[in-house]
Every structure is written in structure tokens, then in C-alpha cells.
Amino acid sequence: MPPALQQSDHVYSSINEALQTAKPNNFLYYINTFGLEYIVVGVRRNQTYCGFVLTGPFLSSIPDTDFISDIIARNNLPVSERKQLQEFYRSLSVISSNDSNSLGELIVNLCLHPHTDSQIITPEIVKPVLDKLQQDTKIAESQTTIEFRYEFERRLMEAIARGDKVELAKILNEGNSFSNVSDRIPESPIRSAKNLLITLNTLCRVAAERGGLHPVYLDTISERFSITIERATNLPNIKKLNFVIIQEYCEAVQAYSTRKYSVIVKNAVNYIDLNLEKPLTLQDIAADIHVNPSHLSRKFKQEVQMTMMDYINQKRVEESKLHLQRGKISITDIAFMVGFNDLNYFTRVFKKYMSMTPSQYVKNAKS
């Protein structure tokens, strides 16, 4: 969980106080300001309150772009962390109210039940028998399939590294090798399919890294899919994940890759993207990445085809649009949130890129 979303001691104290006076069979349905939902159950021994069990976080609705915008605005979170927040919330389970009630009932009964010591048991280990003739036959029959699979992986990684969605769609239409590989664990097809997805997640992460995706984005996407893979409960969902993983890495490279830039410009772009809400000047950025300001300015315009300030303003306008569409906070607050310290300047910059003022944009969004 991102540090900014972690519970404070005050929250735990409030939960503790509420459960101390509750009945033993009560459970608390708690939602914090970040929209994270929890089931909390008090633990008692011999009618004495000992503490509580907190289960979560989970969500009761799909975290779309508007959801993330509201979380950022409500909690004054840095707008540059939108991507990381989006990846975190997507990793959470979305459950219905009936399921959350059932979960609460289950935990209440577990906490009321006397403790019972458990004991682990293991099945007898069966050693595999190596049949050389059978192995040679299998290798000969599967040679073509194996060669196709590795060629498929190579082309797939190249397409992801380029952020080439057109080529990626073409490759996927030709056949997904991961869905055609025989079970590595025959007695557990779901575990076998999950293992292949873990491999796919790693391959896509490596490809995206080659494509110039920043480690911050790589880590959040990779971690989310690792969690999602383990939570998958059936083969149809696992099969769908094949395509979701591949496409999302490709889209991330397309949106955030700095591969085409020199090291200097790449460092500047990464710094801007990860600090959008802070004061950003050419001098400060140059000092942070240890280059001459004039040299950085010249290289940036040459490679990005716009000045650094134009790039910063364009990014800030795109972020401001997401909050203006919601219409829940003032235009002034949005201006400061995305890094502008002057409302009039924000209005001029916004009009330059959108051909309308922020107020007109809000009016159009409502209509």
C-alpha cells in the first residue's frame, strides 16, 4: 500500500473505542477518506475485549478515472502519483455488499470460536519416473510448438518495447502461445496457468523496461498483476488476464516511454512527470539532473519538439481536465493542485491548449 494511504494511529484508536462497546456478534464496516473499505471484528476471550481483526482493504465499486480524481482532491495527494494510485486501486478486490456482509459474518464466527491448535499434514512424495524413449518422442513432437512459442515471445516483447499496439494486435490474432502450452502441473491446471501468467508478467515487464518505461511505473504495474494473478479463481479469468497484461504494458510504454530521448532529456521528462504538482523551473530541473540549463533547454526542444515549459503546462492542463470534469472542487483549487500558483496564468495556459477557459470547459462537461 502507498505510504500516503496507510491508516493513522488516530483511526485505529477510533475503531478500538467503537468495538469495545459493541456486542460480541457485531462487526464494523469501515470506509476511510481514501475510499478503502474494511471489515473490522472485535476479539474477546472470556467476555473480555482483547483487540480487533481488520480485514481489507477492498472496494465496492470499480475504481475508474473519476474515482482516482476524487481521492486525489479529497486528500490533497500529489497529482504526479495518479498512475501509481490507479495501479494500487486496480489491484484491490471489488466485492458486493452481500459478499461483504457474508465476510463479516464469517469473521465474527471465527473470532467467537475457541482457539484450536492446527497441525499440518503432507501427502507422500511421488518420484517422477524418467522414460528416455518417451522423453525423446515428446521432444520431437513438440519441437515445432516450442520454436513457435519462443518466436511468439520474441515478437511480443519487441512490440511491447515499441509500444506498437497495431503490431501487438496482429501478433495476438495469430495465436497466444501461453494458452496453448500443456499443463506444467497436470493435477492443478489453475496453478499451472497462474505460473505461466507470472512468467508472462515478467516478460512484459522486461520488454517495457527496454521500451523506456520508468521503474516507478514498472513496479506498480508488475506488483498489481502479481496480486491479480494470485487472486484469480478460475481458468476463464486467467485466460482473459493474458491479454489484459500484454495490452496494459504496451499502452504504458506508449504513454510514458522515454526510449526515444537521450539520457539528459529522459531524466528531465521523468522528473517532470513525477513532480508535476511542485514548482518546476528549468534551473531547478537542470540542477537536479546535474546538467547545464542552456544545454538542457536546447536538447529538450530538439527532441520533444516543444519547450520544457510548454511540456510542463501541457501535462498540467491534461491533469486539470480530469478534475474539472468532476466539478467537485473549485477552479482555483484545481489550479494550485496541478502546479499553477496563479489562477489568471492557469486560465491563459488552459485557453491556449483547449481554446476555451476552464469555466467554459466545466460548463461544456456538465452539458
Keywords:
367 residues; Arc Repressor Mutant, subunit A; 3 domains; three-stranded antiparallel β-sheet; 3 strands; 7% strand; flat; transcription regulation
Description:
The protein has three domains: 3-112, no CATH class; 132-256, no CATH class; 263-366, Homeodomain-like (Arc Repressor Mutant, subunit A, Orthogonal Bundle), CATH 1.10.10. The protein contains 16 helices and three strands. With 367 residues, the chain is mostly helical. α5 packs across α7 (189-210). It has a three-stranded antiparallel beta sheet, sandwiched between helices. The radius of gyration is 26 Å and the shape is flat. The protein has helices spanning 9-20, 65-75, 82-90, 97-112, 132-162, 165-174, 189-210, 215-231, 235-256, 263-273, 282-289, 293-304, 308-324, 331-337, 343-354, 358-366; strands spanning 27-31, 37-45, 48-58.
Q: Could you give a short description of this structure?
A:
The chain has three domains: 3-112, no CATH class; 132-256, no CATH class; 263-366, Homeodomain-like (Arc Repressor Mutant, subunit A, Orthogonal Bundle), CATH 1.10.10.60. The chain is 62% helix and 7% strand.
Instruction: Choose one word for the global shape.
Output: flat
Which bin fits the share of residues in helices? 55-70%
* Number of domains as seen in the coordinates: 3
User: What is the strand content?
Assistant: 5-15%
> What is the terminal-to-terminal distance?
37 Å
Uncertain residue ranges = none
Specify Rg, calculated over alpha carbons: 26 Å
What's the SSE pattern? Answer: HEEEHHHHHHHHHHHHHHH
Major beta sheet, strand line-up: 1-2-3
Average pLDDT works out at 86
Number of helices: 16
Please state the structural category.
mainly alpha
Largest sheet: 3 strands, antiparallel
Q: Count all strands and give the number.
A: 3
